UniProtKB/TrEMBL annotation:
Span list, region Disordered: 59-79
Keyword DNA-binding part of the UniProt annotation: yes
Residues annotated as domain GAF: 109-246
Biased composition (Low complexity): 59-70
Pfam family, one: HTH_17
Keywords: DNA-binding
Record-given protein name: Excisionase family DNA-binding protein
PANTHER family attached to this UniProt entry: GAF DOMAIN-CONTAINING PROTEIN, SLR1143 PROTEIN
GO molecular function: DNA binding
C-alpha cells in the first residue's frame, strides 16, 4: 500500500518525470504499465512510487518503454533539484518541481487570466508592485508582473523561496531590518524592495509552485481585509494553474 507521503501525480507530471510525451504516458497508464485510478472528474492519477518503479525497470532492461524517442518532452535541469541549493527549499522539492513542470507555464506569454489577478492584488493592497512568481530550480520567473521591469531573477534572490515553505501568508514588513534580506540585490538595488507579502500558489498535488505577492518600496504591513483579498486572489490563481496540469 502506498504511504500517505507517496505523491499523487497527473498524467502530464508523470510524462515529464519519465521524459516522454503525454500521449506515451497515457498509453502506459491505459495498458497498466503504470497503475492508476480516476478522480470523480474523470482524470487519471498515478503514484510517484509507481513512476519511479517504471523508471527503474527501464534502466534495468530493454522494454516497450525504451521505444520512446528522446525529445518527446522538453526536459530541463531547471526542473531537477539542486544539491545544496543557495536558498531554502521544501523537503519535497523534487515533487514540487514536477508539479511546476506539469503546469506548462514557465516561459509562456502573458495571459489576461493571470494579469487580472496581479492588477487586482496591487489595487486591493495599494501596493505599487505585484507578481505571480514561479520558482524553478535556478530562477524565479514572473508569469505576470505589475510595477517590476525584470521578467525573472536568480532563485537565490527570491523572497518567494521563503514563502513557499509555509501554508499561509509570508510577510516581511521591512526588508532592511531583516537579516535574511537586507543584503539581497532586490533590496539594495532595483526595485528596492522594503515590504513583501505573498501566499503560495498551489499546482498539481497541492505542491507550491510559486507565489502571488505584493511589494512596496516602503516598510508597511497588510491590514486584515487586504490579507483576505490577497488570499482569495491566490486561490483563484491556484485553481487556474491546477487546470493547466489536468
Amino acid at each position: 500500500m502506498p504511504s500517505d507521503e507517496d505523491t499523487v501525480l497527473t498524467t502530464r507530471a508523470a510524462a515529464a518525470m519519465l521524459g516522454v510525451a503525454v500521449s506515451t504516458a497515457q498509453q502506459w497508464i491505459e495498458n497498466g504499465a503504470i497503475p492508476s485510478w480516476k478522480t470523480p472528474g474523470g482524470h487519471r492519477r498515478v503514484r510517484l512510487s509507481a513512476v519511479q518503479r517504471l523508471i527503474g525497470e527501464r534502466a534495468a532492461s530493454t522494454s516497450p518503454a525504451a521505444t520512446a524517442q528522446p525529445g518527446d518532452v522538453a526536459s530541463s535541469k531547471e526542473f531537477m533539484p539542486i544539491d545544496r541549493p543557495p536558498y531554502p527549499a521544501p523537503r519535497d522539492e523534487a515533487a514540487r518541481l514536477l508539479a511546476l513542470d506539469a503546469s506548462g507555464l514557465v516561459d509562456t506569454p502573458a495571459e489576461p487570466a493571470f494579469d487580472r489577478l496581479t492588477w487586482l492584488a496591487s489595487q486591493v493592497t495599494e501596493a505599487p508592485m505585484a507578481l505571480i512568481s514561479l520558482l524553478t530550480a535556478e530562477r524565479q520567473w514572473f508569469k505576470s508582473r505589475i510595477g517590476v521591469d525584470a521578467s525573472e531573477t536568480p532563485r537565490a534572490w527570491a523572497f518567494c523561496s521563503h514563502a513557499i515553505l509555509q501554508q499561509g501568508l509570508f510577510m516581511v514588513e521591512d526588508a532592511l531590518a531583516d537579516p535574511r534580506f537586507r543584503d539581497n540585490p532586490l533590496v539594495t538595488g532595483a526595485p528596492h524592495i522594503r515590504f513583501y507579502a505573498g501566499f503560495p500558489l498551489l499546482g498539481a498535488a497541492d505542491q507550491p509552485v510559486g507565489t502571488l505577492c505584493v511589494l512596496d518600496t516602503e516598510p508597511r504591513k497588510l491590514r486584515e481585509r487586504e490579507v483576505r483579498a490577497l488570499r482569495e486572489l491566490t486561490a483563484l490563481a491556484s485553481e487556474e494553474i491546477k487546470r493547466r496540469a489536468e
